[in-house]
Write a structure and sequence with these properties.
Elements (H helix, E strand, L loop, with lengths): L2 E3 H6 L6 H9 L3 E3 L2 E2 L6 E3 L4 E3 L2 E2 L7 E6 L29 E2 L8 E7 L2 H8 L7 E7 L7 H7 L13 E4 L5 E6 L6 H7 L5 E9 L2 E2 L9 E3 L2 H8 L1
Parallel strand pairs: 9-13
Antiparallel strand pairs: 1-4, 2-3, 2-5, 5-6, 7-9, 7-15, 8-9, 10-12, 10-13, 11-12, 13-14
The structure holds uracil.
């Protein structure tokens, strides 16, 4: 059975330094199972459930960040001359190997997941996994009554691409709809509405894999994903 010192274990999984972690532990912010542990040199064993400031941490050492992407920021790791989603992260979250798991267009806002865990990103992005992404879409023209059926049947895009069945829900505003996709093709939402003779004027990603963008996060804001959120995404 593997074991590791608590302060090191926490420093590998949170944005805090060993020194800050020690202070948190002494203040009683950490529990292993149902015990509050105040000794930073205590040990964590495989299978232990560790909670830090009230939240259970994923045992995995990777980092998973929820970012509220504003407009005019690009969802790539490096883009000379442009601001990237990584540029928006606070110093504490920065580390080598981070990348956005999935892209939003420059003018699209909303939930971007940033991680350094390639396997996890693959599970979220793989077309075979059909992880749901929900978008709030504002259209140039009111949504047609036939749209929901056309989405559900699987739209054919202008270039001949056949989309999977998708869900479209009307909202109180006739120009605003909510779309749930199980795949992520280039400019997919915009191309879907273009194939119906309409145009997307605002696009916002509300959720990924059943996890909603935290309403407390302002555009440009970010926070770590909680363990329950990670579990929901990969269920
Ligand atoms: N579909 C689009 O057209 N653009 C995005 O940014 C995301 C989905």
């Amino acid at each position: 059975m593997n074991r590791e010192r608590l302060d090191k274990w926490l420093a590998d999984r949170t944005p805090y330094s060993r020194k800050e972690i020690k202070a948190f532990v002494r203040e009683g912010a950490v529990r292993i199972g149902d015990r509050t542990v105040t000794d930073p040199s205590a040990y964590v064993q495989d299978g232990d459930s560790v909670s830090f400031r009230g939240e259970i941490l994923a045992a995995d050492k990777h980092i998973y960040i929820m970012l509220h992407k504003p407009k005019e920021v690009v969802s790539v790791s490096v883009a000379p001359g442009d601001r990237t989603v990584l540029d928006l992260l606070p110093e504490d979250y920065r580390r080598n190997g981070l990348f956005p798991a999935g892209r939003l267009d420059r003018d699209t806002t909303g939930f971007v997941l940033i991680t350094d865990d390639g396997d996890f990103a693959h599970r979220i992005l793989s077309p075979k996994k059909h992880v749901e992404k929900v978008y709030r879409v504002t259209l140039r023209d009111p949504a047609g009554e036939e749209y929901a059926d056309r989405f559900s049947q699987g739209l054919l895009l202008g270039d001949g691409t056949q989309c999977l069945s998708a869900k479209l829900e009307q909202t109180d505003d006739p120009r605003c709809v909510r779309v749930t996709l199980r795949e992520g093709r280039y400019h997919q939402v915009k191309r879907m509405f273009a194939s119906l003779g309409n145009q997307v004027v605002e696009l916002h990603r509300e959720s990924i894999g059943g996890v909603s963008l935290d309403p407390q996060l302002p555009p440009g804001g970010s926070r770590l994903l909680r363990k329950d959120e990670l579990d929901t995404m990969t269920e």
